[in-house]
Every structure is written in C-alpha cells, then in structure tokens.
Amino acid sequence: MPGPAFLTGDDVTLRTIEEEDLEFLQTQVNDPEIRRPIGRSTPLNADQERAFYEDVVCSDDTIHLLVVVDATPVGTIGLESIDWQSAGAELGYWIAPAHQRRGYGSEAVELIVGHGFDQLGLHRLAARVYGFNDGSKRLLESVGFSEEGVHRDAAFVDGEYRDTHWYGLLEEEWR
C-alpha cells in the first residue's frame, strides 16, 4: 500500500517512501540518466537500497519523499544534513528520465522548499549540481536559488573529475 500524502501540489504529490517503493528506487538510481547526475559510480543492489531506506529514509535527521503523479512514482526529493542550530539543510532530488521536462521537479522543489521554510523554520537551503547538469541548474534558478560558487574537480563521475556548483536560497529570498 502506498505511503500517505505529505505535501500536495497541482500535479505532484510528495508522499512517504515505503518498502514497496524500493524496487522503483533501485531501478532508477542504477539508470545512467539518474546515476550520473546524482554522482553514483557503483551499482546499488536490493540489500543496499534497503539499507539506505532503513538508515537514511527512516531517520529523523532527514526528510525523503517520493514524488508521485497520478499514483505513479516519478522521483524522489528530500532535505538532508539538516542543521537545526544554523537552520539550514541541503536539498536533493531526481526525476525519472521518462517523466522529466514536465515541471514535476520544479513543483516538487517548490513544495519542499515551502515546507522547509514555513514548517521547519529553516533559514537557508543549499543544493549542489555537477557542471554538466544544466537542467538541474535551470530548475534551481527558476525557483529562486542563486549559484554561490564552484568547487573545481570536486567529484569523480563517470571516469572524470567534475566541478560541483553550489546553489543557495535564503528564507527572505523565497518570500
């Protein structure tokens, strides 16, 4: 049975991730079109996906939600590295290749950003994007994030060192 809706927008619903979603998640993060932009260099088997679910998704220190359209999972979104003292967190997301370029990612980001600022009392959100991921850069900028800097050759993805672009959004900029 699917998890309960947590945040609902016009086209997407963000709901809890449940055990029956693990096969979808594992399949997608092993797809090169997802694996590469999120920086995974190794395959993820079922046991590893379950461990991620149990250790990270079920943790009280992060928020990980499934992005759903008409009851069909299309991606994930979350807030990680939540620092309650400085009121900041890092945003992470991916949308399955078959569902990209339809606005689902933008709406999901708007929903979780609003939740972070309005309900969690966060002051600052950060996001990182590899230099080759122009779509994700555009998405972040479209919802108000600003590029704050580049960590040169900070990640090794697909056999090459890649720049990591850091984006940030302050609560007052969101408002």
TrEMBL record:
Q: Which GO terms describe its cellular component?
A: cytoplasm; ribosome
Q: Name one Pfam family in it.
A: Acetyltransf_3
Q: Where is the N-acetyltransferase domain?
A: 12-168
What Gene Ontology terms describe what this protein does at the molecular function level? protein N-terminal-serine acetyltransferase activity; protein-N-terminal-alanine acetyltransferase activity
What InterPro entries would the database entry show? Acyl_CoA_acyltransferase, GNAT_dom, Ribosomal_N-acetyltransferase
Task: For this UniProt record, give its keywords in alphabetical order, as a comma-separated list.
Answer: Ribonucleoprotein, Ribosomal protein, Transferase
Q: Work out whether the entry's keyword set contains Magnesium.
A: no
Its protein name is Acetyltransferase, ribosomal protein N-acetylase
Query: What is the organism of origin for this protein?
Result: Natronococcus occultus SP4
Lineage here is: Archaea, Methanobacteriati, Methanobacteriota, Stenosarchaea group, Halobacteria
